[in-house]
């Protein structure tokens, strides 16, 4: 490029670059940052969590089986009650999982079988949008990801991003977790969990937090699990906290005429096939 043309291009770009730099602004830092990791961890774990939650979201799901787009409807009651419906783009129910705690029911619209079982993570993780336990999924929806058992914790304030970086280590299971946290509202921005023994890597991202009563709830959630090649994105359209649900959305019977199958947890002993239906 001739020198005169290059100089002219730089003159055109300079106002744009200056504008972008001004828009980004300086990184905001707390005047008295937390230095003790146990204090930050206690703050995170002490954040109020809704007693019940209603959440409706557009969802994009990527896995080895392909791409699925639709909607998800969640009704949850802490710590382990849940009702999850996968919906078509026209809001027709495609599948349902419900649990009042302890036991769950899962079936698909028009399907011939209904699956029941104990709510161990190995069971419910097969039918939930991401393979997590029910309490972990509820925490995911409100921006409170699981925290690993750990022996050591270290905390830094990253001055380039203005975020806390909390690093947790469990040498026994060779597991590391890193959480990035906003230092003012204490919103978890992201967390990554890595376990060397089985190459597990989980990445959770939260964005667009908004105040709702006494709560801070994210409106965009992303969960990536490399081991299962899972990538789920939720764009929250409606969310309500501490609702009084009509009836009991967590106790659901198998549809009449479906064959009932029992899903076993690793420590359960098989029994005679239940068969029949609940309805």
Kindly summarize this structure in a few lines.
Helices cover 15% and strands 43% of the residues. It has 279 residues and is α+β, with helices and mostly antiparallel strands. It has one domain (38-263): Lipoprotein localisation LolA/LolB/LppX (outer membrane lipoprotein receptor (LolB), chain A, Clam), CATH 2.50.20.
Which descriptors would you attach to this protein?
single chain, 279 residues, alpha+beta, outer membrane lipoprotein receptor (LolB), chain A, 14-stranded mixed beta sheet, two-stranded antiparallel ribbon, 4 helices
SSE layout and pairings?
Layout: H1 3-24, H2 37-45, E1 52-63, E2 66-77, E3 81-87, E4 93-101, E5 103-108, E6 113-118, H3 121-124, H4 134-141, E7 152-158, E8 163-170, E9 175-181, E10 188-195, E11 200-207, E12 210-212, E13 215-217, E14 220-225, E15 230-241, E16 259-263
Parallel strand pairs: 6-16
Antiparallel strand pairs: 1-2, 1-15, 2-3, 3-4, 4-5, 5-6, 7-8, 8-9, 9-10, 10-11, 11-14, 12-13, 14-15
């Amino acid at each position: 490029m001739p020198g005169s043309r290059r100089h002219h291009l730089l003159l055109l770009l300079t106002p744009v670059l200056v504008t972008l730099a001004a828009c980004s602004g300086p990184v905001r830092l707390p005047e008295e940052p937390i230095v003790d990791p146990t204090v930050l961890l206690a703050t995170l774990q002490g954040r109020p969590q809704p007693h019940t939650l209603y959440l409706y979201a557009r969802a994009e799901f990527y896995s080895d089986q392909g791409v699925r787009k639709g909607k998800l409807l969640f009704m949850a009651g802490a710590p382990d009650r849940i009702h999850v419906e996968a919906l078509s783009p026209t809001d027709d129910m495609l599948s349902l999982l419900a649990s009042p705690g302890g036991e769950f029911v899962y079936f698909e619209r028009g399907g011939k079988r209904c699956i029941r079982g104990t709510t161990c993570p190995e069971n419910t993780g097969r039918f939930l949008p991401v393979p997590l336990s029910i309490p972990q999924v509820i925490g995911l929806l409100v921006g409170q990801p699981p925290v690993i058992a750990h022996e050591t914790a270290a905390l830094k304030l990253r001055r380039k991003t203005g975020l806390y970086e909390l690093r947790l280590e469990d040498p026994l299971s060779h597991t590391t977790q890193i959480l990035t946290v906003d230092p003012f509202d204490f919103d978890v921005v992201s967390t990554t969990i890595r376990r060397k023994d089985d190459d597990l890597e989980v990445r959770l991202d939260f964005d667009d937090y908004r105040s709702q009563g006494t709560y801070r709830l994210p409106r965009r959630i992303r969960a990536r699990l490399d081991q299962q090649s899972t990538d789920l994105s939720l764009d929250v359209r409606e969310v309500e906290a501490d609702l009084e649900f009509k009836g009991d959305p967590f106790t659901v019977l198998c549809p009449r005429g479906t064959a009932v199958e029992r899903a076993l947890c690793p420590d359960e002993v098989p029994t005679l096939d239940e068969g029949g239906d609940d309805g």
